[in-house]
Each structure stands twice: as structure tokens, then as C-alpha cells.
Fold this sequence. Notes:
The chain is α/β, with parallel strands linked by helices.
Amino acid sequence: MSVQHNRNADASALTDLFQPYTMGSLTLANRIVMAPLTRSRALAGDVPGPLTVTYYAQRASAGLIVSEASQISPQGKGYIQTPGIYSAEQIAGWKQVTDAVHAKGGKIVIQLWHVGRISHPALQEGGALPVAPSAVTPQGRVFTGKGEEDMVTPRALELAELPGIVADYQRAAQNAKAAGFDGVEIHAANGYLLDQFLRDKTNLRADAYGGSIENRTRLLLEVTDAVLEVWEKARVGVRLSPLSTVSDIDDSNPEPLFTHVVRELARRDIGFLHVIEGMTGGPRTPGRPTDFDLDKLRRLFPNTYIANNGYTREMAIEARTSNRADLIAFGKDFISNPDLVERLRRNAPLNALDAATLYGGDAHGYTDYPFLDTPA
């Protein structure tokens, strides 16, 4: 063992990143979170299969796993082979995953997802148009069974349809409990349906769900309240991406919007807030005139704050040293390093990511990444 490795091991002993953390009634083994990661390997019927069981069980040393986004209904689907949480078969598939993670001592919550306009008729039942707050065409392409296709102009949801959307989230939350999850994360980030309602680029409505910040926030808060009727508060979280423009999303004045959102979520005393800091999968400081200091959201939220986006070991330790976040989420590093927690603890080298195997395929690039050979 090198002197440098000794110093690194000593440094890890000076942080609580690798120590247990209590989140309500959940005790996490450490403060490292596996972020939700779409892998597009669901079986027919969008059911998680045996490979998915192995994949998550391999990564159960994370303090908390947030599962890949899972559609709450057939309408909520936007990518091929993504798992759902609305059918009996999907519940049974996920139950095998949660059982395997729990057998390894891990904790796992499911991310509840409706993509809204980020879809295509080829992915919708009966070739229907994707839905959105308003009929604003997203710029971009989406993977279907035919490959990449341009996204289309969505259909604006009718006012009378919105209670059904809320009910779908609540039913998915109930299904998640039946599947053995430890909690749920409501996906309100990355330009999907709830984010589309929040932002004034995509929400042009003139009814009670559009216009003012309070109106644009209404659907997210109704969904949150509905999920809180199913789960205890400490086991419910929300994911936000206040500065990100991924999926052709944006807002003219995000600071008052997201401070209002976080104040309302704090008032509901939900267990955790999961914030993508900066551009999703990109710069942590995009540098636009409308950007703001996300530490403000940390100060507004009294419960568990999960920080996400481009964190390294050193950044994670610093975030805990300065108390900028309670938990740190790692994304792609968990894909190529099933034992990421141990590698970070020991400051061991990380496996390189094979980007060609991120989406779809078989075990290659999914469950065949190597673990560290021997303990230090």
C-alpha cells in the first residue's frame, strides 16, 4: 500500500460521508446515493427482469438507491424498454429487485415518472399524441422501436384530466409500497411533465394551473399531497433541476419559482429534496443571467438535502465538511462501479464507463463491470 493511499484512507476517516445516516425511520449505511439512471432494459410489458435484479443488488452498498425513472401509466412513457409501476407484472418484477437489495442490506426508493411531451405517438397507446400543459413542440429526438425520431407537438391536457394524472401518481405510490420499496421520489426535473407545468416556457395555460408561480406549482403540490396520503412524510422526496434546460425546458425567472416550490415542499415536511445542481449531465454553473445560488434552496429546506451533478470524491467530502448537503448522489460512476462506495472510501481507481452500452442491450455494460479484487 502506498503512502498516498494511506493518506487518502486517513482523509476518508475525517469525513462522515461513509458513516450511517438517519433519514426519518430509515437508517442508511452511508451518505452516498445512487442516482436514478435510465438503462432501457425492461422486458416485455415494461417489466423489470432478472438482469435488473442483479444490477441493483450489485449496487446495494449505496446508502440509498433511487431507482431508474418508472412510468406511472402507459401515457407516462417516453423511451423504449423503460420499466413501469402500474401493472401487477411490473409490481412483481420490482418486488424481486427490492427483495434482492434488502437481502444485501441496502435501501431503495422508486422514482415516479410521467414524461409528458418528451415522448412520441409510437410509444403511446393507440398512437396517441403525448400530453403536456400546453401544445408547445419540444426540440429534439426520442428513441422508439424505429430508432431516433423527431418529437411531435403534444396535446394540451384538459383541466378535467388533471385529477386523473394525480390519481395515477397516487396509485403508483401504492404500487411502490406493494413492491417493497422503502419510499418514493417524485420526478419533477429534467423537462418532464411536472417540470413542464412549473416552467413558463412550456406552460402557457390560462387556467388555475398556468400563469402565476402559485398556479404553475399547483400540479406538483397536488401530486405530492396525494403521495403523502400513501407514504409517511420521511419516505417521500422530490427531484428538481432548477437551472437545467435539458429536454428543451426553461423559465424566465427560475429563482422565485423554485424558492416557492421548495418552501411549499418544506411546509409539507417531505423527507428529502434531490437537486440537480446546474445543467443535467453538464456544467454545474451554466452561467446564464437567470441562474441563482442553489445554496438558497438548501437553506430553505429543513430535511434531507441530496446534491447531484458531477460530484467527485473530493467534492463530496467538501460538501459534507461544509454541510452544503446531507447526501451526495453519484450517477454514471455507479453504472461502471457497482462497488462505488468502497472505491470512494479507499480512493481506489474507478472503472471506465462504456457509453455504447448505456441504453438497451444485455448484461454487457450492465452487470459485468468488475468489483475490486481484494480488500485493502
